[in-house]
Amino acid sequence: MSIVGLVTVLLIVFLAVFAPLVAPHPKHASAFVDFANASSPPCRTYPFGTDVVGRDILSRIFFGFRFSLVMGVVVLALVVPPGVTLGLVAGYNQGTWLDTVIMRITDIFLAVPPLVLALAICSVLTPNLFNAMIAVSLMWWPWYTRLVYGLASTLRNEFFVNSAEAIGASKAHIIFREILPNCISPIFTKMSLDVGWVILIGSSLSFVGLGVQPPRPGLGTMVADGARYLPDQWWISVFPALAIVVIVLGFNLLGDGLRDMFAAEEV
Amino acid sequence: MRFEMGTSPLRQAQDIALLEIKDLHVHFDVYGGTLKVLDGVNFTVHSGQKVGLVGETGCGKTTTMKSILRILPMPPARIPRGEIYFKAQDVLKMGDGELRQVRSEGISMIFQDPTAALNPVFTIGQQLGAVVKYSMEGKKLSKKEIRERAIIPLKEVALPDPERMLDSYPIQLSGGMRQRVCIAMALVASRELLIADEPGTSLDVTIEDQILRLLHRLVEEKNVSVILITHTLGVVRETTDRVYVMYAGNMVEVADTEELFAQPLHPYTRGLMDAVPRLTGGGIADGIPGRIPDYLNPPPGCRFYPRCPQAMDICRQEKPSFYGKRSGVSDNHEVACFLYQDGGKGA
Q1: Among residues of chain B, what percentage have pLDDT more than 90?
Q2: For residue A178, which residues of chain B lie inside 8 Å, CB to CB?
Q3: CA A92 to CA A88: how far, in whole Å?
Q4: In terms of DSSP bridges, do strands B250-256 and B334-335 run parallel, antiparallel, or are they unpaired?
Q5: What burial letters (b/e) apply to A70-80, b meaning 16+ CB within 10 Å?
Q6: Are A168 and B73 in contact (CB < 8 Å)?
Q7: Which of A230, A225, A201 is nearest to A213 (CA)?
Q8: Is A127 exposed, middle or buried (0-12, 13-18, 19+ CB in 10 A)?
């Protein structure tokens, strides 16, 4: 199954990167109007049909992948380094005031439902993709802090950490060279699982109009556009929605595969 | 007092002990109260001396050693009272820089489980390289130089094919090889004090013997002072000059090795020696009935009295201090037991 995930993810990345080349109607990705072919059901020219202004759904999905992937990658890039570092520092200094301060702040962020927090932040800022990424990042880092905190607070009692302390290694060396490398596989696994979830949250924000702004083709935005024409012109909403399902499923299968792989390594 | 002369200029001040622990208390704050683990430990190592430390599992041997290097996890551990002097400087009062210097140049430690003491995700070369780097405070070495220096200790501990060893991961080595690597790490810099915390316990008997012989040879060659923690009394007898016997966070007896084995005084020391199974048969030894007391509510007075065959009324109320040996024998033998109160010279 993890191979299916890997293939799906690679395929989506390929389609997103080469969208202008592989999309049948690249122009349809932005502001484009063709009322002659508006709301056309799936046919040979438009395999997934067209929306109310005559834009090809398939082409827009390919371009939509771009925003989704950018969302996933940028959010994780913003979230993982600080989240992991805070977790390492708190875990290594377990029981001190540093631990208390970091972990209580983490708990406060974890206590608020993520989507609600993201919605709140987005609605204060100008609605666009960049601010959506900021909002999702702000609610996502505590999960990494929690994960790494648990690992680091166990690892700090390992003999090799003691032994590194005993040879006079600096705190930075112990945290980043002794403890961090032993946390890498759970972090990677969580990252690959999280890409899917971040994309889902991003799409939710787009759906309520706080993410990718029209005429740009965010997958969530497209689902929202078509929702008004359900169930008669079902293809406008259903195909972008299925695209979200595929992308999330792909990353989850990949993540599960990575987890199994790392678990097998430890035996 | 007996001294062995060192060669280093640092060892000229002979009236100052290399390591001196005074009245060390270590407490652990846990859910439900405070574990009073170390309760006034006194311990001295002179330059060139090889000191043995014996006692049953859980009596605080490792805790004492970890507090010397300040690698106890604090919290939950806490040192409410006590001083630890390394070359006349109090380790407990040192700043980060001084402490790091003691760790990287003064004292090294070998841990009981060589598998756990090596980081599983790095090669031996990377880990030895880090030790080399940290023992060269201030000096920058190229990768090649680090590698060259890392090979030397591997050769010293008689590991076959040290070049290949540098590129191996800990999991690819046997237990004996891993412990040799750990010893190599401890010997990278010429330190003054080596703490060997049960270096052979997790290995089988023949390998343990090899490791101990190796360790013995290396400390003789390098003129390093040693603290050897072990459960095996035979090893202590063969390899140390002086022995401390520890029970439940207290030192109960200390003497020169020969003296201690010839004439153990404390009831606990005697019990410990009786507990050694003999190869000549005679059944399983009696051992000492009971077990180490609960550190949450340790018995008042002498911590050994609940298990002591010769307990007296005073043992329940007062904590015995160190008494010199009853008149007639050397001054080097001290025992913390009321049985010897009258003949002793007082604390």
Answers
A1: 0
A2: 119
A3: 6
A4: antiparallel
A5: bbbbbbbebbb
A6: no
A7: A225
A8: middle
For residue A18, the one-letter residue type is F
pLDDT tens column, B267-285? 888 888 877 777 776 666 6
- CB-based contact (8 Å) between B243 and chain A? no
Task: Answer yes or no: is A139 within a domain.
Answer: yes
Residue A247 lies in a domain: yes
- Bridge-based pairing of strands B33-45 and B19-30 is antiparallel
Phi, psi of A135 (to 5 degrees): -60, -45
Mean pLDDT of B328-341: 71
Q: Give the residue on B whose Cα is nearest the Cα of A98.
A: B75
Q: What is the pLDDT of residues B283-306, one digit of tens each?
A: 666 667 777 777 888 888 888 888
The answer to whether the Cβ–Cβ distance between B107 and A96 falls below 8 Å is no
Collapsed DSSP state (helix, strand, coil) of residue B99? helix
Residue with tokens 């929702």: A227
DSSP states of A76-126? HHHHHHHHHHHHHHHHHTTTSHHHHHHHHHHHHHHHS-HHHHHHHHHHHS-
Counted domains in chain A = 1
Give yes or no for residue B195 having a pLDDT over 50: yes
Question: Average pLDDT of B135-146?
Answer: 73
CA atoms within 13 A on the CB side of B26: 28
The enclosing domain of A246 has a CATH number of 1.10.3720.10
- Inter-axis angle of helices B124-135 and B143-156, nearest 10: 100
What mean pLDDT value characterizes chain B? Answer: 78
Q: Where are the alpha helices (DSSP H) in chain A?
A: 2-17, 19-22, 57-92, 97-111, 114-124, 129-155, 159-166, 171-173, 184-207, 219-227, 235-266
Residues of B in contact with A94 (CB under 8 A): 73, 75
Q: Is B102 in CB contact (< 8 Å) with chain A?
A: yes
Task: Select the residue of B75, B103, B107 nearest A96 (Cβ to Cβ).
Answer: B75
Q: Which of A56, A54, A14 is nearest to A37 (CA)?
A: A54
Dihedral pair phi/psi, residue B70, rounded to 5°: 55, 45
For residue A256, tell me if it sits in a domain. Answer: yes
* Count of Cβ atoms closer than 10 Å to residue B109 Cβ: 28
Q: Is residue A27 part of a domain?
A: no
At A184-206, the pLDDT tens digits run 888 888 888 888 888 888 888 88
Q: 121-160 in B: which are within 8 Å (CB) of A?
A: 121-122, 130-131, 134-135
pLDDT score for B283:
63
**What element of type H or E holds B102?**
none
Each residue's pLDDT tens digit, A94-132: 888 999 999 999 999 888 887 888 888 888 888 888 888
**Do residue A178 and residue B111 have CB atoms under 8 angstroms apart?**
no
Q: Residue A189 belongs to what domain range? A: 2-16+63-266
A160, A168, A182: residue with CB nearest B134: A168
Taking residues A142-170, report their average pLDDT.
86
